[in-house]
Write a structure and sequence with these properties.
The protein is built from 15 helices and 15 strands. It has helices at residues 20-28, 47-51, 61-67, 79-82, 101-109, 131-148, 178-189, 201-210, 222-231, 252-255, 306-327, 329-335, 337-341, 353-358, 366-369; strands at residues 2-5, 32-36, 56-58, 70-72, 90-93, 113-116, 170-174, 193-198, 215-219, 234-237, 263-266, 287-290, 293-296, 343-346, 349-350. α6 (131-148) crosses α7 (178-189). It binds nicotinamide-adenine-dinucleotide.
């Protein structure tokens, strides 16, 4: 198979979708790996490092898309890339279609075979290709939130952990999944008073068992959210319904009741965000203020720490890439139920029910199309 790795063009994105070990394994198995010139530089991987293990370095993204049967990326294609995609080309990357109707329709129109990292699901119901980036974003959410609480950023000017004789900040985390758990661990380690909220009581029971004493678990419903958010200095929003748009948990009316100088890190912004006043931002201008509350809404948080994130991501994506390359699309999707859950679109049809419902598209179960 000819596999193409373009440069990531979304602003401030430094990750790359493959590392030399992946290139080496694929080329040894007889596949051709095309990499756009300079694609690894943000992670500290030179073109020579890729070439030494068999990659072909290609000058332009246009050539990558023209020659490759399968495009492996990190983030979803940007509008400048839509016209480069070809019919039946396999696209394997984060897609987050629930937050992007235009992308959904462009991929359908072009009959691209779109596999989304974030909907690949293992037998235990875990999201193996989202998890490592959620670990990164969860841990980062507290360091970024701490900066938002500093005075120059528009925050109230407090330290998360307080100091001797001065109280710590209150951190409220909406969603106790991978992002939320990692955020809670870091916030607790800094000495903040943490509340972590989820609708899933089994998950809350687990968190109650493993979290330190300064982390309280709370059932997530309108009443508790309202009370907790009003009292919070920092809110981390990380609730997810698989494949769907993020649940709306902080309406504009609740935002108005938050304390001036408090902050929201809406990690779920890639699925549309949990806060009504959230809109996507970039690492260059990560935060803005509404009603005296600092909002941090970067859609590609792990892109800022590519030296960690690229390796964490490719550790988990590469086994799926090998399978796709070695067995071909249809056979690997037939054999691997986890990867099959990653199939969102094929041949102009939508195979992910929540997306079909959200955009009123006709739904086709993947099994019917393979
Ligand atoms: N911005 C970024 O750079 C970035 C990076 C990684 C992940 N994310 C996003 O972060 C979000 C969370 O990812 P995750 O891996 O932690 O998902 P996850 O599935 O592990 O956890 C989501 C949790 O939300 C809970 N939940 C659902 N509805 C809720 C509600 N109404 N109130 C409280 N909790 C609720 C679920 O029960 C689950 O425990 C996703 O949208 C993901 O795409 C963003």
């Amino acid at each position: 198979m000819i596999i193409g790795i373009p440069n990531e063009i979304i602003k401030d994105e430094n990750r790359v979708a493959i590392v030399p070990v992946g290139v080496e394994e694929l080329t040894l198995a007889g596949h051709i790996v095309l990499i756009e010139k300079g694609a690894g530089l943000g992670t500290g991987i030179s073109d020579a490092a890729f070439q030494n293990v068999g990659a072909v370095i290609v000058e332009t993204a246009g050539e990558i898309y023209r020659r490759a049967e399968c495009i492996i990326k990190v983030k979803e294609p940007q509008s400048a890339e839509y016209d480069l995609l070809k019919e039946n080309q396999i696209l394997f990357c984060y897609l987050h279609l629930a937050a992007n109707e235009r992308l959904t329709r462009e991929l359908l129109k072009r009959k691209v075979t779109a596999l989304a990292y974030e909907t690949v699901q293992d037998e235990q119901g875990g999201l193996p290709l989202l998890t490592p980036m959620s670990e990164v974003a969860g841990r980062m959410s507290i360091q970024e939130g701490a900066k938002c609480l500093e005075k120059p950023a528009g925050g109230k000017g407090i330290l998360l952990g307080g100091v001797t004789g001065v109280k710590s900040a209150t951190v409220v985390i909406l969603g106790g999944g991978i992002v939320g758990t990692n955020a809670a661990k870091v916030a607790a380690g800094l000495g903040a008073n943490v509340a972590i909220m989820d609708t899933n009581h089994t998950r809350l029971r687990y968190l109650e068992d493993v979290m330190p004493k300064n982390v309280m678990t709370l059932a997530s419903h309108r009443h508790n959210i309202r009370d907790a958010v009003r009292e919070a200095d920092l809110v981390v929003a990380a609730a997810l319904h698989r494949g769907e748009r993020a649940p709306s948990l902080i309406p504009a009316s609740l935002l108005k009741q938050m304390k001036p100088g408090s902050a929201i890190v809406d990690v779920a912004i890639d699925q549309g965000g949990c806060c009504e006043t959230s809109r996507p931002t970039t690492h260059s201008q990560p935060a803005y203020i509404v009603d005296e509350v600092v909002h941090y809404c970067v859609t590609n948080m792990p892109g800022a720490v590519a030296g960690t994130s690229t390796y964490a991501l490719t550790n988990v994506t590469l086994p799926y890439v090998y399978k796709l390359a070695n067995k071909g699309l249809r056979e690997s999707l037939r054999q691997d139920t986890s990867l099959r859950k990653g199939l969102n679109l094929i041949n102009g049809r939508c195979t992910l029910k929540p997306i079909a419902e959200q955009y009123q598209l006709s739904y086709a179960p993947p099994e019917d199309l393979l």
